[in-house]
Amino acid sequence: QGLLVWQQEASSEFDLAYADFLTMDISMLRLFETFLETTPQLTLVLAIVLQSGRAEPYQWVSIGTSFMGISWALLDYHRALRTCLPSKSPLGLGSSVVYFLWNLLLLWPRVLAVALFSALFPYSVALHFLGLWLVLLLWVWLQGTDFMPDARSEWLYRATVATILYFSWFNVAEGHTRGRATIHLVFLLSDSILVAVTWSTHTNWLPSGIPLHVLLPASGLCFLLGLALRLP
Where are the bilayer-spanning segments (predicted)? Predict the structure, then answer.
């Protein structure tokens, strides 16, 4: 009878670990869907708003909801990942709020920068994405990812991760992430600043209905707040 109880407990622990693993996989798939579908759509909507120079209240509500949904997907995956790592403690409520906020605050300036570039140069944004995506794909490859069972699937995984990195930070390697995250942050910040500088030299290309002279400084403030939450 004691052996039977031990076997049931061992089986229960295995089932719980397997359930955590499945939860992490589901969260990752949701995250991939978010950055392959929702984020590009959000960028397109913002670009259309910038080009038209006007937006209805429901559009702003939809844009804000999309930003929160993307940040929630990042938080959901991070929480699921930590449950599968014995060396990591579960993310508490306070830490979850901070993680959600810093992703939201860092995501907004990046998406706005890409949308602004799309509004200014709609025929060049694909080249912009492709150029940065290839650099990010190379960076992911250099980190030696080994997540998928075969080489073809691994390259598909790397391509997806490179797409996420175009918009936001996503860790793909073990060990300390601060150095890699800093490099990625500086890379995206430099690109976003170039877009803002480009806008300042082409101010007459867009309608004046959207107050970019307010949105861009506000985005800079959001970035600094997100950075302040991210660094500790």
Answer: 57-75, 90-108, 120-143, 155-173, 185-202, 208-229
